[in-house]
UniProtKB/TrEMBL annotation:
A single cellular component GO annotation: polyphosphate kinase complex
An annotated GO BP: polyphosphate biosynthetic process
Location of the Polyphosphate kinase C-terminal domain: 2-131, 138-220
A GO molecular function held by the record: polyphosphate kinase activity
Keywords per UniProt: Kinase, Transferase
Protein name: Polyphosphatkinase
Species name: mine drainage metagenome
InterPro entries (alphabetical): PP_kinase, PP_kinase_C_1, PPK_C_dom2
Pfam families linked to this entry: PP_kinase_C, PP_kinase_C_1
Amino acid sequence: MVAIKQTLYRTSGDTPVIGALTRAAEDGKQIVVLVEIKARFDEQNNIRWARQLEQVGAHVAYGVPGLKTHAKLVLVVRQEEGGVRYYAHIGTGNYNAVTARQYTDFGLLTARREITEEVADLFNYLTGYSRKRDYRYLWVAPINAIERFEELMERELGHLREGRPAGVMIKVNGLTDGRAMRAIYNASRQGLPIRLLVRGICALRPGVAGLSPSVVVHSV
């Protein structure tokens, strides 16, 4: 193993993550950690973890100015027989031992080069070494996420028009973005089934005739 790169948004006091990163740094591995110090209620914890990692030689970055880094990403770089290989974890849940026992989250563990190379590019962007803006597989806000969302909504509408199975399920912390809601309203007026799982605030009005007749919202 050559390097580990990871985002830390919200972690717990008993997390094994910080210990593992600390030991790897002490063993001479390249450790890059992006710590979000604007994570509400965890600002002090994150500053403490960041200082601990800096003390053992890890490269700690504090995000992109003006933005909050909410991504949950890990990239492991290994030197293998065939050369350097990337392994990536892309998830929806914080690397937090407490909330991992309570919440339902999704995670993708992959070694597909076309995906892992984009994760590597994204870490370079977050740490100030790249300004890549043409991601194909990753949805990166504010670069391309809303555009990709609109494209996929249109794709499902195309399936619907052709008589193929179609529908959308969305799981989010909150829904207040006007552009995203307009895309949902537009698709619903055309009959596309849409199911939303919203943990927090939802500004969209579901089940309104002529506006959102096919939208169902479940509040978590």
